[in-house]
Specification:
Bound molecules: adenosine-5'-triphosphate
Radius of gyration: 20 Å
CATH topology of the largest domain: Rossmann fold
GO molecular function: ATP binding; ATP hydrolysis activity
Shape: globular
Protein name: ABC transporter ATP-binding protein
Structural class: alpha/beta
Low-confidence stretches: 260-272, 274-330
Keywords: ATP-binding, Nucleotide-binding, Transport
InterPro entries: AAA+_ATPase, ABC_transporter-like_ATP-bd, Metal_Ion_Import_ABC, P-loop_NTPase
CATH class of the largest domain: Alpha Beta
Number of domains: 2
Family: Belongs to the ABC transporter superfamily.
Amino acid sequence: MEKEAEPCIEFRQAAVQRGGRTIWSEGTFAIQRGTVTAIVGTNGAGKTTMIDVELGLLPLCHGSVTVLGRPAGQANGRIGYVPQNYMDDVDSNVTVDQSILLGITGTRFGFHRVTREQRGAVADIIDFVGLHGKERMRLNELSGGLRQRAAIAQALVSHPDLLLLDEPLANLDLASQSAIVELFARLNREWGMTIQIVSHDLNMLLPILTGAVYLLDGHPHYSGMSTVLDSQLLTHLYGTKVEVVTTPQGDMFVTPNPDMEPAGHGDGTLDASEAACFFKQHYAHSHPAGQQSQGATPSRATPQSAAATQPDTATQGSTQGSTQGFTQED
Ligand SMILES: Nc1ncnc2c1ncn2[C@@H]1O[C@H](COP(=O)(O)OP(=O)(O)OP(=O)(O)O)[C@@H](O)[C@H]1O
């Protein structure tokens, strides 16, 4: 019997192989309920593999993984999952409400009765994700951001306890990324949803993250954000120079490219005017004057990711070329 105090996800000495090769090993960590966690690492480090393991789609070669108090794969009915290429698996001619209904009925073909309750659940989730008025539109008529909301709605309609998403911000423009991050923040705040997000790039997610699983040197580790936001750790993780710069107000900038940093601040600390000047100098072109943050926590002054305005670069294998301003909470 599952206990509320149990972690949501627990790895014990977990190791996995693919094609006869060990992808990662010695994974021992616990992720608590009600948290928002990123899975980060370079291309091929095994982020998607970790989701596959948590869903019980891939057996371990060593150790154990428990999800929602059960061996991985046995509680999938309580997990909402948004795969990386959602549209690859879905008929893009289906309407928004039909696609969301699949989250309840499964992908069974043929006629099946839809209850009033099920229709109500679909309508509620359409409202929650902000797709009201678009119910009858086909998925291929929607923008990428709205399609991603439909994918998330499908995963949420059966009210899971855990939401797993694989690169949900990839290929979205800045406004769409912000809207999706805001949706995650509301889900976590209002529903107490535990959320785990595979992401190449921490940037846009930083305001809502509790911690991160990082795949370093072939081993998964979990830490809270105050530990993850360490220049040395991020430099090692991404294999490129990364600096975490902090203003006295607590705004932080992760600056992967040392050439873009102001001179003479080896300690990674700027005063407020220097930080403003630095930000304006390097990123003002993507943050027009007066543009306010649309981040997940609007009460915080949160300049957005510069790279996020360039979807093609934002989704590449490392944080190189991307910069984030955010406010650290923990
Ligand atoms: N079905 C498979 N058979 C064999 N090897 C695989 C299979 N799927 C993935 N791999 C390999 O496992 C490793 C981890 O892949 P995975 O997709 O989990 O990485 P990732 O961190 O999500 O990468 P990316 O950031 O590129 O999406 C890669 O080297 C990949 O080539």
